[in-house]
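Researcher: Let's walk through a ligand-bound prediction step by step. First, I give you the protein sequence. Second, the SMILES string for magnesium ion. Third, you return the three-dimensional complex as structure tokens. Ready?
Model: Ready.
Researcher: Here are steps one and two:
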Amino acid sequence: MTRISMENDDRKPRPAEEAHLIPYDRMKEQFEKEVLGFLEKKGAEDMTPPQVSFEKGATRIHFATPPITPGMLIDFVLIIKKYITHLRVHSFDSGYYAFQALNRNVFKTENILDNCKVEFFVLSTTSRVEISKKGNLSQEEINMAVELFRRAVSATRQDPAFRLRALGASMVEPDRDLTWDYIAGYEEVKRNIRESVILPLQNPDMYDSIARMTRKVFETNRPRAILFDGPPGVGKTTAARIIAGESDLPLVYVPVESIMSKWYGQSSQNLSQIFDACEDLGGAIIFLDEIDSLAGSRDQNMFEATRQILSVLLRRLDGIDAAASTITIGATNRKNDLDHALISRFDQTVYFPLPNAAERAAIFGNYAKNLGEAECSHLGDRSEGLSGRNIKDICEFTERRWARKVLVKNLEPAAPPFDFYRHTLRIWKETK
Ligand SMILES: Nc1ncnc2c1ncn2[C@@H]1O[C@H](COP(=O)(O)OP(=O)(O)OP(=O)(O)O)[C@@H](O)[C@H]1O
Ligand SMILES: [Mg+2]
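Model: Step three, the predicted complex:
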């Protein structure tokens, strides 16, 4: 009877196998050359390339991907299978999937944890892929890492958040800790927003079912676009962030002015793509900030680019098939200068005035809770014409001045006294 020697099947690489392992430095160079070349070819140089390291005797490659969907996971597993013949599922918990190469002799489990391992960490807004192995990688393992990364790149390029970033917009996940309490006063504005924006976003079906009872041909009656008008620093952007938090939707922030200059010449297509990406999000608050950069009525000499952007915007705001939970908010400091056709696309305007004396006192109260009511009223009475932003700046400035004094004079840390606020306010008024 022939005895089959198991010796060669041990985990320890045989000399021949060892020769197949690529020394770390060479591997890193080859791998990085491949992935950077790929990113360049795809015009995705702004994506973060994988990180490669060698620590505590192990090689590690990791990179980010958009949240991993079941379809992506299957693709990843197929890629791993192509390069690693004998594989075991180490974990398949939701949120953590790990696959590990078995030993050459699949029945031997000795040192199995030292073999090549591919892990997927699924987080809410991004995921991470990690390839690790004790010692050096084989050519097959390097190829696998390259292919996994390529798959991640193609997913990223389809990911709405990535597309938005590439277009100069940004997506902010809802912040549920930011509530209306953050804005002092403005009760009328808050009520108005609650009724005209939050209710429809939270109950789109109710609005649609009423329209079904009234319209011969169904069309939605939900407001799709709201204009925030008001001087600088009165809480328009903050209100949009609060709305996103309350309705649990991402806020897509579109700085119209910077988009126009960034994409000069092709901004209209880009604006269109921003709306497409928002639709793929399946619901969002689209915040078009500084919409006045499109100001100028049609009969004035408008630049060709501005005219094109405006026409895209007019069409998009009219769009009947926008997702039920998407609303566009435009913000302006100069509503009167806006194109009339554009204004008419907004279902409603919410005006944010400068705060009155009582509101200014309340804003002081928000940023200087150390002050008493009478002290806040005093400051509120003497800050006519200031916005919430100005008041916040005054409070911050006071804190900094006070902190310097505490440090220089070696005082016990304490909140700034009332006199310091009064003094900053006076300096502020004199210098403005
Ligand atoms: N009523 C308020 N209560 C508390 N903080 C306020 C209030 N109004 C404005 N602020 C603060 O002032 C800062 C500026 O507000 P925000 O950016 O929302 O203003 P804005 O109306 O969007 O201004 P702009 O037109 O310049 O874009 C924020 O930090 C905001 O919290
Ligand atoms: Mg703003």
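Researcher: And what stands out?
Model: The pocket of adenosine-5'-triphosphate (ligand 1) is lined by residues 183-186, 230, 232-238, 333, 355, 363, 366, 388-389, 392 (CB under 6 Å). The radius of gyration is 29 Å.
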